[in-house]
Structure formats: structure tokens, C-alpha cells
Design a protein that fits this description.
about 450 residues, alpha/beta, Four Helix Bundle (Hemerythrin (Met), subunit A), Rossmann fold, 434 Repressor (Amino-terminal Domain), 3 domains, eight-stranded mixed β-sheet, two-stranded antiparallel sheet, 10 strands
Length: about 450
């Protein structure tokens, strides 16, 4: 998880502060030395760390803080506010065109995940904002770049405009014309990357910028490259003038220094972050929510948004009615598992949960193999068997096992889990659905072993 090491060190430091009750100026300065080391170890830029610690220290040693009833909490509050400011203060949204399609020019170095991120962002715009995006293949140099964009576009059911290995600037202009003619209100230009920032790359991007006048130029950078990501952002901004940054692979970087350094070093906001390999794993970047995650306070707003994105109101009403009548079936069980699965793995959700709850979930995942087996077994049943599993005798179980390529004992295991689930539902009263997630993930979750 991003910021895992930093989060642990900061929480240890603040735990010691809380244990002191009353604080002196020396207590605060000692704690800030530990904060400084933690930030440097997280690969945050030296100047950024120096300025951050100086600001926090200055605010924390004031009489109104040290003389308050809860000085340690006041210091944590100040750190939270300054972390938020460091990352930009508030979520920076995309600039939308008043007339015609909004043109978003995606730029970056090779290996940052630009092509996949282009499709992810377009998918997010359609999913959350009901946009009609068009993907434009303007990378005519990298082998299979066009094919890759067509594949990910196809997976997200997004149209892709391509004209082979032609002139990238002309392709971009033609894509925008195509969007106007076919009702697309956003165009995402997947431009060519290079292994390093070079004059040829920048010249081509400048020509494209002049020709299409994009509403947004977004730089895609790999969070795992740390300060190299910050350097790339500075170079692209100086040469091209970017409007914002998308950090990819944030889930794979336990340090997270790039996220804390980019805004302070370049003045450009992080607008979106990639949180996993799946094509729906991209989300707007909220500095205040990220600061809360770093300090172990959780991020319930993002958790609620994830839940709402997979929440089917009609299905929930139908389920509630069944629970009242105590007729929860294997079909209902299957549908609820699908919704839980749509929220992502438990380790990602852990970072959104405050304090001890997040710790309990840390490292947990939904076991995809067990989930797949569960789905296969239920889908091998007839509609009648899903509604009334009591009719499942030995011969039916053998047929179901053969139909899904598993053993009878796997079928028995699922039926035992389902029986436990039915017992749980009897405890629910009208409108009380808490515990549902725990019950349905029983047997499907696992804890990753520490290495």
C-alpha cells in the first residue's frame, strides 16, 4: 500500500507524543526530527521536507498549541493540514471545453503506463460523468502501441480512432474532427513516449499542442520511480506546460514520495492516481483524503464512493425484502458476492479504514480462486436448485461438481458456508444490513503472510 512505511513511522511518533500529555517545545522539535527522517525515507525531496518540517514546527510550538488541553492532537491536526497543503489542498478537476469536444493530451515517458492510463481515464469519465469519450492512437513509433490501445479500448467498450503509422499531429486533428462528426464529447490523445526526455519528443508534442489546442495536457508518471517522477514532471512542464499529473502504480509504492513532492516541486496538481492493474482502478486524487490515510485516520468518503459505484438500489431493496421473509437464496448469495468483488480487494479498502479496522484488513484479499470456484458451482446449478438448495442430494451434487470441474466436497463446502450465511440472516431485523459483508466473505478472504 502507498505510504505504508511513512504512515507507520508517523503514527509511532505521534503515539509517543500523546503519551506525554503536556508537551514542551523540545518534545515537538524531537518529534519533528523523526517526521523529517520518515519523509526522507519515503523518498520525498529534501527541500520539500525541509520546508514542510519548518512550517509544522513553527505552527506547533506556539503557546496556543502547547498550552491547550490536547497539545498532541493539535500537532497531529497541524501535520494533517500541512500534508494536505503540500499535495495541493483540494482535488483539481479537468478543464472542460465550452464548445466542441474536450481534448485531453496524454504525455509521458515509456514504461509509465500511459496507454493503459489513457483508456482508464476515458472509462472513468464515461462511468462517473456520463461522457462519450474517443481514444485517439497518436503513438506511431512504439511497436504494438496502436494495437494495445485498441485492446484496452475494446475491453472498456470505447471507440478508438487510428490511422496507422501516419503523422501524429494530423492523426490528432483528424480524431477531433471525427469526434465532432460522431457525437464524442471528449478526445483522449495517446501520444508517443520516449525512454527519456529528448528534443525530438518535445518538438512533436509542441507541434501537436499548437495544432489541436488541448484543454488539458496530463503527464503520466510512475510513482515507483520516486524523485525521477518529480524530475520528469519538471522537465515536461518546462518544455510543454502541463496542466496536471496522473500517478500510476501508487498501490505498488510503499514510500509514496512522488505524491508528496510533485505539487511542491512543480506547482502542478496531481489530478488522478492509478491504484491497481484493473481497468477501473483509477480515481481522482484528493489531497485531504490522502493526508488522512497517511496519518491512519482512514478515508471513509472514498470508501463510500466505491460502495456507491457498485451499489444496485433495486437489488438491495429486493434483498432486504427477502431477508425480512428469511428466504435468502444461493442466487442472492451469488449476486451479493459480485457486488463485494466490484469494490476491489480488501487490501485496497484497508487504507480507507481508520485506525484498528484498517490494520485488521491490511494484507487481506478476496481469494480469486475460491471466488471463481464459488461462482462456477452456483452457475452449474439449475434455477430451482439455487432457490431451494435443500433438494441437493448426492446425485445432484455429483452432477454439479462434474459440470464445473470440481469435487463433491467443494460443493459441500459451499453449501455449509451458505447454511452459515442463512443462520446469520435470521439475526437481521428490518433495515439492519450491517455484517453482510463479513458474512458473505466468510471463507473467501485470506490474509497475506508477511515475508
Amino acid at each position: 500500500m502507498a505510504f505504508e512505511g511513512l504512515s507507520e513511522k508517523l503514527n509511532e511518533t505521534f503515539k509517543r507524543l500523546r503519551g506525554k500529555g503536556r508537551l514542551t517545545e523540545n518534545d515537538v522539535r524531537e518529534a519533528m526530527r523523526e517526521v523529517r527522517l520518515a519523509l526522507l525515507e519515503a523518498d520525498v525531496g529534501y527541500k520539500v521536507v525541509k520546508d514542510f518540517v519548518s512550517t509544522v514546527t513553527e505552527r506547533s510550538v506556539g503557546a496556543d498549541v502547547l498550552d491547550s488541553l490536547t497539545p498532541a492532537q493539535q500537532v497531529v491536526k497541524i501535520v494533517n493540514e500541512e500534508l494536505t497543503n503540500l499535495m495541493g489542498g483540494a482535488n483539481a478537476k479537468l478543464s472542460m471545453a465550452n464548445n466542441g469536444p474536450t481534448v485531453v493530451m496524454m504525455v509521458g515517458l515509456q514504461g509509465a503506463g500511459k496507454t493503459t492510463t489513457t483508456a482508464k481515464l476515458a472509462g472513468l469519465m464515461r462511468r462517473q460523468y456520463s461522457k462519450r469519450p474517443l481514444l485517439a492512437a497518436c503513438d506511431v513509433y512504439r511497436p504494438a502501441a496502436i494495437e494495445q490501445l485498441k485492446v484496452v479500448g475494446g475491453q472498456l467498450e470505447l471507440p478508438v480512432f487510428e490511422q496507422g503509422q501516419g503523422n501524429p499531429v494530423e492523426i490528432a486533428e483528424n480524431a477531433i474532427r471525427h469526434a465532432r462528426d460522431h457525437g464524442s464529447d471528449m478526445v483522449f490523445l495517446d501520444t508517443a513516449g520516449r525512454l527519456h526526455v529528448d528534443e525530438g519528443l518535445m518538438d512533436e508534442l509542441k507541434r501537436m499542442k499548437a495544432a489541436v489546442r488541448p484543454n488539458e495536457i496530463l503527464l503520466v508518471v510512475d510513482a515507483m520511480t520516486g524523485q525521477d517522477a518529480v524530475n520528469a514532471a519538471s522537465a515536461f512542464d518546462e518544455a510543454l506546460g502541463i496542466d496536471g499529473v496522473i500517478l500510476t502504480k501508487l498501490d505498488g509504492d510503499a514510500r509514496g514520495g512522488a505524491a508528496l513532492s510533485i505539487r511542491a516541486s512543480t506547482g502542478k496538481p496531481i489530478k488522478f492516481v492509478g491504484t491497481g492493474e484493473k481497468l477501473d482502478m483509477i480515481e481522482p486524487f484528493h489531497p485531504d483524503r490522502m493526508a488522512s490515510r497517511i496519518l491512519g485516520m482512514g478515508d471513509m468518503l472514498s470508501f463510500i464512493e466505491k460502495a456507491q459505484a457498485t451499489y444496485d438500489e433495486k437489488q438491495a431493496a429486493k434483498l432486504e425484502e427477502k431477508l425480512k421473509k428469511n428466504c435468502f437464496t444461493l442466487q442472492d448469495y451469488y449476486e451479493q458476492l459480485q457486488q463485494i468483488r466490484g469494490m476491489g480487494d480488501l487490501s485496497q479498502l484497508a487504507g480507507m479504514m481508520p485506525g484498528g479496522i484498517g490494520k485488521q484488513l491490511q494484507g487481506a484479499t478476496l481469494d480469486e480462486k475460491v471466488m471463481a470456484h464459488t461462482e462456477a458451482i452456483i452457475l452449474s446449478m439449475t434455477p430451482q436448485e439455487r432457490e431451494t438448495p435443500q433438494i441437493l442430494g448426492a446425485s445432484r451434487k455429483r452432477r454439479i461438481a462434474a459440470g464445473c470441474g470440481l469435487e463433491v466436497m467443494d460443493v459441500n463446502r459451499l453449501l455449509k458456508q451458505f447454511d452459515m450465511m442463512q443462520q446469520l440472516t435470521r439475526q437481521f431485523s428490518k433495515g439492519r444490513m450491517s455484517g453482510m459483508g463479513r458474512g458473505m466473505t466468510h471463507g473467501l478472504g485470506r490474509k497475506k503472510r508477511s515475508k
